[in-house]
């Protein structure tokens, strides 16, 4: 059961904006990561020659480099989310707290 205070928060336009903005941004980043990851998996499954190609004259293959790109992109997208959360989302939360208090 929703209390009066919870109902007040849920009906607040700033809370609804915060939820909508944060959810939309999180789903966008999740979709980007999914495309990156599935792209890598499909390359592994269907482009054996490309993934096995050597980079330069060494033993490192394109697959290893792309695998590192997948890992780095996960960290990068996490950093982007944290930056947005510490900036815009925290500002919206502070505005909401002022309205509710």
From TrEMBL:
- Name the InterPro entries on file: DUF485, Inner_membrane_assoc
Q: Which residues cross the membrane?
A: 24-47, 59-82
Instruction: Give UniProt keywords alphabetically.
Output: Membrane, Transmembrane, Transmembrane helix
Source domain of life is Bacteria
Q: Which PANTHER family match?
A: INNER MEMBRANE PROTEIN YJCH (PTHR38598:SF1)
Protein name per the record: DUF485 domain-containing protein
């Amino acid at each position: 059961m929703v209390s009066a205070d919870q109902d007040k928060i849920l009906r607040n336009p700033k809370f609804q904006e915060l939820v909508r903005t944060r959810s939309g941004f999180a789903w966008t980043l999740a979709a980007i990561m999914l495309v990156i990851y599935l792209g890598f998996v499909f390359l592994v499954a269907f482009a054996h020659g490309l993934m096995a190609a050597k980079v330069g004259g060494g033993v490192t293959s394109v697959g290893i480099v792309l695998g590192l790109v997948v890992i780095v992109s996960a960290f990068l997208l996490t950093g982007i989310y944290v930056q947005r959360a510490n900036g815009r989302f925290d500002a919206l939360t502070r505005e909401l707290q002022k309205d509710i208090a």
